[in-house]
Design goal:
Elements: E1 2-7, E2 10-12, E3 18-26, E4 30-39, E5 46-51, E6 57-59, E7 67-72, E8 77-82, E9 91-100, E10 107-111, E11 115-119
Parallel strand pairs: 2-11
Antiparallel strand pairs: 1-3, 3-8, 4-5, 4-9, 5-6, 7-8, 9-10, 9-11
């Protein structure tokens, strides 16, 4: 069926940058909204950013001005550029996408497996 795979996580120092990627593959008719979430140790999942099929974006206040979400529809991929990283950004980052698998079908929310981002000096 459909799968989403995140990549690009790692260990960076405070103030550093990382670029996360999320590729959707499988039986896909169209991809609508795509988004990024994160889960810090001991905390609930937090919404980070969203991008619509027409490239309209929105961000959580905690990352606004530092993170940028984008997408490449020819590659079924969304990106999260993370700049000026802080220790509190440490979390597992997940991508999500609303995907229609056939013209007559409804949208289904798919999730990736997550990629670890650690910000530490």
């Amino acid at each position: 069926q459909v799968q989403l795979v995140e990549s690009g996580g790692g260990l960076v120092q405070p103030g550093g940058s990382l670029r996360l990627s999320c590729v959707a593959s499988g039986s896909i008719f169209s991809i609508n909204t795509m988004g990024w979430y994160r889960r810090a140790p001991g905390k609930q999942r937090e919404w980070v950013a969203v991008i619509t099929s027409s490239d309209i974006t929105n961000y959580a206040d905690s990352v606004k001005g530092r993170f940028t979400v984008s997408r490449d529809n020819t590659k079924n991929t969304t990106y999260l550029q993370m700049n000026s990283l802080k220790p509190e950004d440490t979390a597992v980052y997940y991508c999500s996408a609303l995907i229609r698998r056939s013209p007559a079908g409804g949208q289904i929310d798919y999730w990736g497996q997550g990629t670890q981002v650690t910000v530490s000096s």
